[in-house]
Design brief:
By secondary structure, the chain is an alpha+beta fold. It has two helices and four strands; from the N terminus they run αββαββ. Its main location: Golgi.
Length: 94
């Protein structure tokens, strides 16, 4: 996950992830406080319902990157305040 947060995220979004948390049971939460794909949208609540559409692509990028490393995962995203977002990565046991 450190690879995703540092190298992968820097290559794709030109910055490192702001926060990485884990429960040590295969669930990681990646937090980006100024997510690049949401920066152009207004911070108002009227766009909050459309934000998940922009996060679906990034969920696929994370899942694909992990898959190429041989790690099977489920990736979900949530937005509570714009432009911050959280990605939850659940590593699946093989």
């Amino acid at each position: 996950m450190k690879f995703i947060c540092k190298d992968f995220w820097t290559t794709v979004f030109k910055k490192q992830i702001d926060n990485l948390r884990t429960n040590h049971q295969g669930i990681y939460v990646l937090q980006d406080n100024k997510f690049r794909l949401l920066m152009q949208m207004s911070a108002g609540k009227q766009y909050l319902e459309h934000a998940p559409k922009y996060l679906a692509f990034t969920c696929g990028l994370i899942r694909g990157g992990l898959s190429n490393l041989g790690i099977k995962s489920i990736v979900t995203a949530e937005v509570s305040t714009m432009p911050a977002c959280k990605f939850q990565v659940m590593i699946q046991k093989m």
